[in-house]
Specification:
Elements: H1 3-16, E1 20-22, H2 25-30, E2 44-47, H3 51-64, E3 68-71, E4 86-89, E5 97-101, E6 106-109, H4 115-122, E7 127-128, H5 141-147, H6 154-157, E8 164-170, E9 176-179, E10 181-183, H7 187-190, H8 196-210, H9 212-218, E11 239-241, H10 243-246, E12 255-262, E13 264-265, E14 269-277, H11 280-289, E15 297-302, H12 303-310, H13 313-316, E16 328-336, H14 339-353, E17 360-363, H15 366-377, H16 379-384, E18 391-392, H17 406-419, E19 424-429, E20 434-441, H18 446-465, H19 477-480, H20 484-503, H21 547-552, H22 570-575, H23 582-593, H24 605-612, H25 619-623, H26 630-641, H27 649-654, H28 657-666, H29 668-675, H30 678-687, H31 704-709, E21 718-723, H32 726-730, H33 733-745, E22 748-751, H34 760-765, H35 768-787, E23 792-794, H36 797-805, H37 807-810, H38 814-821, E24 823-825, E25 842-845, H39 849-855, H40 858-866, E26 870-873, H41 892-901, H42 903-909, E27 915-917, H43 921-931, E28 935-936, H44 938-945
Parallel strand pairs: 2-4, 3-4, 21-22, 21-23, 23-24, 25-26, 25-27, 27-28
Antiparallel strand pairs: 1-2, 5-6, 6-12, 7-13, 8-9, 8-12, 10-11, 14-16, 14-17, 15-16, 18-20, 19-20
């Protein structure tokens, strides 16, 4: 599109809408992909604030002949959410629950509301929206409507089409309409007039009558069919509801701005059985034999998914329900009105399967069940985290057949893959006949692209032979729309085109989807001609296959867009902007690496802006199932960025806490007086950029090192090196003293080593040459202890965990690996024998982000519970302080916004007799500044509980 026309369009949009209009090249790159294998740059992006903005945007686009593409979370797997169009992103502002009617079990929602957010709103009513996709923590209802999504429990709740009652939509000419049930006796009124709505009703009614027999003959008779348009919904004898036709139309007919949805009661009781099998086919054969027991879900997990879950930081901690090394798991859920009812169904299941599935693990606890579902839901992004260029990709991943025919269908499917020299992963909805099958293909190889299309053609023939559908819930998009004419036949496909023309006479609504589709191998994200820059790096990216492949691990699944749980991604949780998600940052970097943006952009202000709000929390390292480590990537980016740009005075100050600490302690009376003065804080803000509203940590009267040096050593057979981090040494020596007391009382002799700063502050600023020098020295000194079997224990998670996370990728050789293997947090140390007679009754625990990512919160929870305290863990995400981030003037407000999402409300609600625990110094600082309450380090809690002062 001519740039001048695009800029004129953007200006006109800005004049008429209240939302955001973004036509810059970075935004277009960020929206050029979804979770599919496709990539196509949009014309621009509008982020509407309300339905009026959508109406105005569509009117302007229609007048100018510009295509329109409505988008939610961008988690489409078939390319529905990408195209050369004006994208309308509903996810930021149009995400309200408009109305709930619990008496009649319905709700009105805007399209941008996330499924799980809706669920949280509905929980007090004991209601839920039935369909629940694996992407429920970031999937928008508008996308589920456009896709006709289903999910694991479709056996009892059906697809989205069965759960949508009415939609408010904007037609292709900007006309607002409401589609709902219209009695056939009243259809004549709807078909009168010259407007677009009347023309749509006339054509829809005529198509239903004209093609009734062919629809009945050609539409697959299976539980899961979302290919094509829902012409079968026009055959109802009493009513015509065009909302049912809008469902599954992928934004090609109209843009939904509100929906009235059916709600269902939350079942009072639910249980899971996890069946273990020695092979895929025995599992599938069992699935067909148990459907008469009326399970609410029957889900398959294969060996490939399990293997990748075991290698994931986050999901390896959730695999306790798997016993041994099975080749396949079948997750069976029963729900009902009482515990007695569902337990009796479990008994019936066990009797039915006999010895065919051993063991059968019963999971009765709600939290344990949620754990199983998290692993199952992570299957897709886990698979795409497979190292290398050969990935289990989505193109024939959504075929559906009658459930009883699944074993034979899969047997034949495996034969197709074998003929083409590849294998696949098989998982998901075995009970509904819709397995997600992902063949391993390298789309960077032209021959492999050809292999993909050949496999797709052979699978299509197999689907037709089995009377199935190419899509059972993921939709047509760019991957499968071209099959629709052959799947449904010329007559029905002609009816599809007529329906499209009636709704969209100019062909502007998400063109190329469902009908008039391009070939499936056009507009690929990768392809035979794909090449990526491979910059020289400081970190080793050997495990990822290089820096570019580390970035390419992001497949667009969008787990980083969740908001109700976990840490990833703090900046997106606050801003709701795509560029502030892990996915957005990866896409921006990839655009530079693959040449769509010039290589000079590595030092551009715009790319820096995209990366700026990444606070290196490492949430993505653990919680992204594909293992995107944006903290590591950002450090390397900053090193590249600063090759041609000097570091600021503020950066240089923040990255030398050791020098600042020595100076501050030496001048303590003056230094501590100065940092309390408003005029001095104002001077720091204006000259250095440290926000005056942020308190500054006082310097200690005596460093921890000096205190330790003048005390008498306590000899013991068991020895430990305490890594006394820089901040503790100069600012919080009382934490080190508490740790020494605990370690010595627990039977250890405590030693200090002549170490240097861990380098964490410099890591966060990309000063990787300095970090490598510091790391090399620490490895030299501390690995000698590690080689003798002496553990190195740290108190500040971000410091000690750098030994385990960053050092092995910065310092070559075995010494760094040995140090990593022998470095622990206090709560991880084995052999600490201690009684806790004075433990606090109640503790409220906030976990440090790096601790949660690399270690998990479980060891610290166990350590605190061992004292006898009642410990409540707050799943509060990141505190927002993030080292220097919360001090910086331009980041102070967003730092507090991150904390206000979950952490600070939980602290304020905690009774005053509840003791706050936070292992990170930044976390404690944020809590103190924002609430006035003091949080303690676990070492201080342990010393107090043990009566050690």
């Amino acid at each position: 599109m001519i740039e001048s026309f695009a800029m004129g369009l953007a200006e006109e949009l800005r004049e008429h809408i209240e939302g955001e209009v973004r036509f810059d090249r970075y935004t277009k790159m960020l929206y050029s992909t979804d979770a599919s294998i496709y990539q196509k740059e949009p014309i621009g992006v509008v982020v509407p604030r309300h339905a009026g903005d959508v109406e105005q945007a569509i009117r302007i686009a229609a007048r100018e002949g510009v295509p329109i593409l409505p988008r939610g979370g961008g988690t489409s797997l078939a390319g529905q959410a990408v195209g050369e169009a004006l994208i309308l992103d509903h996810s930021k502002f149009m995400r309200d629950l408009v109305e709930v009617c619990p008496e009649e079990s319905w709700a009105r929602v805007q399209p941008g509301i996330v499924h799980d957010v809706l669920g949280a709103h509905l929980e007090p009513y004991g209601l839920r929206f039935g369909p629940e996709t694996a992407t429920s923590n970031r999937a928008n209802l508008g996308g589920m409507i456009g896709n006709n999504s289903a999910g694991a429990r479709s056996l009892i709740y059906g697809k989205t089409v069965e759960n949508v009652l009415e939609v408010k939509a904007i037609l292709s000419d900007g006309t607002p309409v409401t589609f709902g049930p219209v009695p056939r006796s009243e259809l004549a009124k709807k078909t009168e007039g010259d407007g677009l709505e009347a023309a749509i009703y006339r054509k829809a009614v005529a198509l239903g009558e004209q093609h009734r027999d062919e629809i009945d003959r050609r539409f697959p008779k299976i539980p899961r069919r979302v290919s094509g348009y829902n012409l079968d919904e026009l055959l109802h004898p009493d009513v015509v509801n065009l909302a049912k036709v809008i469902v599954g139309s992928e934004g090609t007919l109209a843009t939904v701005v509100e929906a009235k949805i059916k709600l269902v009661p939350m079942p009072p009781a639910a249980v899971l059985a996890v069946l273990h099998f020695d092979g895929l086919l025995p599992a599938l054969e069992t699935a067909t034999e148990i459907l008469d027991l009326e399970p609410s879900a029957v889900e398959l997990v294969d060996e490939m998914v399990m293997d990748l879950a075991r290698k994931s930081l986050e999901y390896s901690r959730r695999m306790h329900f798997v016993q041994g090394e099975p080749k396949a798991l079948m997750i069976v859920e029963f729900s009902g009105e009482s515990e007695k009812e569902v337990l009796s169904k479990l008994d019936a299941l066990e009797a039915r399967i006999g010895a065919s599935a051993k063991p059968m693990v019963r999971i009765l606890d709600a939290a344990a069940q949620a754990n199983v579902w998290k692993v199952r839901k992570a299957a897709l992004p886990l698979l795409l985290g497979l190292p290398g260029d050969r990935k289990p990709i989505a193109f024939v991943e959504d075929t559906a057949v009658a459930p009883e025919r699944v074993p034979d269908f899969i047997r034949r499917f495996e034969e197709i893959l074998g003929r083409h020299g590849t294998v696949g992963s098989f998982y998901a909805h075995a009970g509904a006949g819709c397995l997600h099958i992902r063949p391993l293909v390298n789309l960077k190889d032209g021959a492999e692209v050809t292999k993909m299309t050949t496999i797709a053609e052979e699978v299509f023939d197999l689907v037709v032979e089995f009377g199935g559908s190419m899509s059972g819930e993921h939709g047509d998009g760019l991957a499968r729309s071209h099959f629709n004419e052959r799947l449904f036949g010329e007559q029905i496909y002609g009816a599809f085109k007529e329906l499209k023309a009636a709704f969209d006479p100019k062909g502007l609504m998400n063109p190329g989807k469902v009908v008039h589709a391009p070939a499936m191998d056009e507009d690929l994200r990768y392809g035979g001609a794909y090449r990526a820059l491979e910059p020289k790096t400081h970190f080793s990216f050997a495990h990822e296959g290089g820096f570019a492949r580390a970035v390419e691990l992001c497949n667009g699944a969008g787990v980083c867009r969740k908001s109700l749980e976990g840490t990833m991604c703090p900046s997106f949780m606050v801003t709701g902007d795509e560029e502030h998600s892990t996915r957005g940052r990866a896409n921006a970097l990839r655009a530079v690496l693959d040449g769509r943006l010039p290589p000079e952009d590595f030092s551009s202000d715009r790319l820096y802006e995209v990366m700026d709000l990444c606070i290196s929390c490492k949430g993505c390292k653990a919680e992204c199932p594909s293992n995107v480590d944006m903290a590591k990537i950002k450090s390397e980016f900053l090193a590249l960025y600063h090759r041609d740009r000097p570091y600021s005075l503020r950066d240089r100050l923040f990255t030398r806490p050791d020098a600042a600490g020595r100076f501050g302690v030496a001048t303590r009376p003056i230094a501590n007086w100065l940092i309390r003065q408003g005029w001095f804080r104002g001077l720091l803000e204006s000259v250095v950029g440290i926000d005056r509203r942020r308190s500054l940590p006082p310097f200690a009267a005596e460093t921890f090192e000096r205190w330790f040096a003048r005390r008498a050593p306590r000899r013991a057979e068991k020895k430990v090196v305490l890594f006394h981090d820089t901040f503790m040494n100069f600012h919080e020596p009382e934490i080190g003293k508490a740790a020494v007391a605990v370690l010595e009382a627990g039977g250890f002799e405590v030693m200090l080593a002549k170490k240097v700063c861990c380098g964490r502050p410099a890591l966060s600023k990309g000063m990787l040459d300095r970090v490598r020098a510091l790391a090399t020295e620490n490895v030299r000194v501390l690995s000698a202890f590690a080689r003798d079997g002496v553990p190195i224990v740290g108190l500040e998670p971000s410091c000690i965990l750098s030994f385990r996370d960053e050092y092995p990728d910065l310092v070559p050789g075995d010494d760094a690996k040995i140090l990593a293997e022998h470095s622990f947090l206090l709560e991880e140390l084995e052999g600490l024998e201690l009684d806790f007679p004075e433990a606090p009754a109640k503790l409220l625990l906030h976990g440090h982000c790096h601790l949660k990512a690399i270690v998990g919160i479980e060891p610290l929870m166990a350590f605190l519970k061992k004292m006898g305290s009642d410990v409540q863990f707050v799943d509060a995400g990141c505190c927002g302080m993030a080292g220097s981030f919360g001090y910086e003037k331009e980041h102070f407000d967003i730092s507090l916004q991150m904390a206000e999402r979950r952490l600070l409300p939980a602290v304020r609600e905690a009774p005053l007799d509840t003791v706050l625990v936070a292992p990170g110094t930044s976390c404690r600082h944020q809590i103190s500044d924002a609430t006035g309450r003091r949080a303690y380090h676990p070492a201080q809690i342990a010393a107090r509980a043990a009566g050690l002062g």
